[in-house]
Amino acid sequence: MSQLLGVRIAGTGSYLPKRVVTNDDLSKTLDTSDEWIRSRTGISERHFAADDEAASDMGIEAGRQAIEAAGVAPADVDLVICCTMTPDHIIPSTAALIARGLELENAGGFDLNTACTGFVTGLTCATSYVRSGLFKNVLLISSERMTTYMDMQDRQTAVIFADGSGAALLQPSGESDVLAVRMGMRGDDSTLVIPGGGSRMPITPEVLERRDQYIKMKGRETFRFAVRTFAGLITGTCEDAGITTDQLKIVVPHQVNQRILEAAASRCKISLDRCAVNIDRVGNTSGASVPIALDEAVRAGKIDAGDLVLMIAFGAGLSWAGILLRW
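^ that's the sequence the OP posted. Answer follows.
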């Protein structure tokens, strides 16, 4: 058996739609206020996609940045993995549309859906392709147009979710590597779910009347699960790698809720300033939140070669994943 290769993230990118929606904007149509939203979620504003802007459009922009940052020619990209729960179409894959938009003439690819856990799940998949030597340049993108599935009459979800995309270009490396990975899931289609639109509940007039084509979330159950899961991912992934949480340079979490992040960090005795947090101005962009926050941290110079970087996420499924990299 050939020796496994090291893996590095050679370039990152991100994209946020131009339309900024503030809490005051939402309070004009919802029974809410800026204080109510900020006190419960930490969110002040978020970005909504334009009417003609789909997941692939945002993914193309983030992917282009990652390719340019890595200094890779489009023709040298071997594989595109698009992590999304909001694809342009049922078929073809959004990865295929992104590859066309970026003119990746030699790339294969596919979509992957683990909802908000998407990018971290995709990262474990992408690193496996690179470590095995099957592919040299893997473009991993998470792009989410959450507004497609947001019920703007539901205060609980309408104030949280938002649109955006993030990307990373992975390559073999002699030094950087994946130190530990944790993944898990449990069958749960009640805590966080879009009931209508699949084979279990095809779209009918009755489904539309119940508004079951939109995201449904049990807030309290989600909060408790997220805090417990995030804390376990942080400590457990570090233990698997044989390090302490003090050795982490930065934690890049899914931007689910400011209060959840604060509670999980407190449990692990990690100060929040060691976490990449942007939920206040970006909102919850589902699977795209981790790569958007990662790209911001990279471009701000917060991550250097040799740093230990932990990325964690949880989402519908219920699913969760963590991956620890040496940058």
